[in-house]
């Protein structure tokens, strides 16, 4: 009996000791789940930059591994640097920019129609005194250069280039027996004379000049080509008006020259005015007619 009681009492003491030990043990706070809330703005920007960097890295890797197949070859990888070089590399047969511009100007196709005219060219010893009188021009007059002065015989506004040889043969045929012409200058005038004139000119005269101009016009029309329909008036153009400008008072000239050739000229329009190039020259080598011999008088008539 005594032994049993001791055992029970021992068990009761052990339980009390365990309870006392648990009462003095430090308590550990319970672990709770972290609350998830919105990220700060700086963290969001960092995440966006990271996403863009990763996407760029993936794109660069994909570009480096891009496969292309050259003509007649096998597929091989091409890096981004090599592709950029091939894109900006100029073809071997391509000229530099400056030479390409010059080549484009040289390769400009010729016009489909030519502006031509038969004319007498004015020599320097006559053109220079005329140029001195051009100094009297005022306002919007554009003077003709001395080396461009001429007497137009027949004007052809639009000639196919392939018909140029026909006009050369025509000029040679109509001038082969003509002698040189003595050209004389007269006074100045205007076209039109009434109202606002467009052209300032000086009149010229020469024996046989009107006949030559008429024969050239008829010959051109016989070839089926168009000519100017205005009546022929021999003159030398001194200036053209481009805007309001006063008239120059009338002038007269005591000048002239012996025309020994007729030319076929080409007119090329420029912003500064037309320029003229000689296509062909026809020499006047005919023999001038002999002067009329004085008529002989009867000696008996003289005595009476």
Write the layout of secondary structure elements.
Layout: H1 2-24, H2 41-64, E1 67-68, E2 76-77, H3 80-88, H4 97-106, E3 114-121, H5 124-133, E4 141-143, E5 150-159, H6 164-175, E6 181-191, E7 199-206, H7 209-222, E8 235-241, E9 256-259, E10 261-268, E11 275-283, H8 299-303
Antiparallel strand pairs: 1-2, 3-5, 3-10, 4-8, 6-7, 6-9, 7-8, 10-11
Helix pairs in contact: 6-7
Question: How would you characterize the overall build of this protein?
Answer:
The protein has 304 residues and is of the alpha+beta class. The chain has a domain at 114-283: Cyclic Phosphodiesterase, Chain: A (Alpha-Beta Complex). The chain contains eight helices and eleven strands. It has helices spanning 2-24, 41-64, 80-88, 97-106, 124-133, 164-175, 209-222, 299-303; strands spanning 67-68, 76-77, 114-121, 141-143, 150-159, 181-191, 199-206, 235-241, 256-259, 261-268, 275-283. It has a five-stranded antiparallel β-sheet with strand order 4-8-7-6-9, with helices on one face. A four-stranded antiparallel β-sheet has the order 5-3-10-11, with helices on one face. A two-stranded antiparallel sheet has the order 1-2. The termini are far apart.
What does this entry show, briefly?
InterPro entries: Cyclic_Pdiesterase, Phosphoesterase_HXTX, RNA_CPDase. The chain has helices at residues 2-24, 41-64, 80-88, 97-106, 124-133, 164-175, 209-222, 299-303, and strands spanning 67-68, 76-77, 114-121, 141-143, 150-159, 181-191, 199-206, 235-241, 256-259, 261-268, 275-283.
């Amino acid at each position: 009996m005594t032994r049993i009681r001791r055992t029970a009492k021992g068990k009761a003491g052990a339980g009390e000791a365990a309870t006392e030990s648990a009462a003095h043990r430090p308590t550990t706070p319970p672990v709770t789940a972290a609350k998830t809330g919105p990220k700060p703005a700086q963290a969001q920007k960092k995440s966006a930059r990271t996403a863009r960097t990763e996407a760029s890295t993936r794109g660069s890797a994909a570009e480096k591994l891009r496969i292309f197949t050259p003509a007649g070859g096998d597929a091989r990888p091409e890096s981004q640097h090599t592709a950029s070089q091939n894109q900006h590399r100029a073809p071997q047969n391509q000229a530099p920019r400056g030479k390409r511009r010059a080549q484009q100007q040289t390769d400009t196709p010729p016009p489909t129609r030519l502006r031509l005219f038969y004319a007498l060219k004015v020599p320097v010893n006559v053109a220079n005194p005329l140029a001195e009188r051009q100094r009297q021009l005022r306002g919007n007059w554009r003077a003709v250069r001395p080396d461009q002065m001429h007497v137009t015989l027949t004007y052809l506004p639009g000639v196919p280039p392939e018909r140029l040889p026909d006009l050369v043969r025509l000029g040679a045929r109509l001038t082969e027996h003509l002698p040189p012409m003595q050209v004389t200058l007269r006074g100045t005038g205007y076209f039109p004379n009434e109202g606002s004139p467009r052209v300032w000119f000086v009149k010229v005269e020469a024996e046989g000049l009107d006949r030559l101009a008429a024969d050239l016009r008829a010959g051109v029309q016989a070839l089926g080509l168009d000519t100017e329909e205005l009546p022929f008036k021999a003159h030398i153009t001194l200036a053209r008006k481009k805007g309001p400008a006063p008239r120059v008072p009338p002038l007269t000239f005591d000048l002239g020259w012996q025309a020994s050739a007729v030319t076929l000229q080409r007119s090329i329009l420029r912003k500064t005015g037309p320029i003229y190039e000689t296509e062909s020259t026809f020499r006047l080598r005919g023999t001038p007619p002999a002067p009329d011999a004085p008529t002989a008088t009867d000696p008996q008539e003289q005595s009476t």
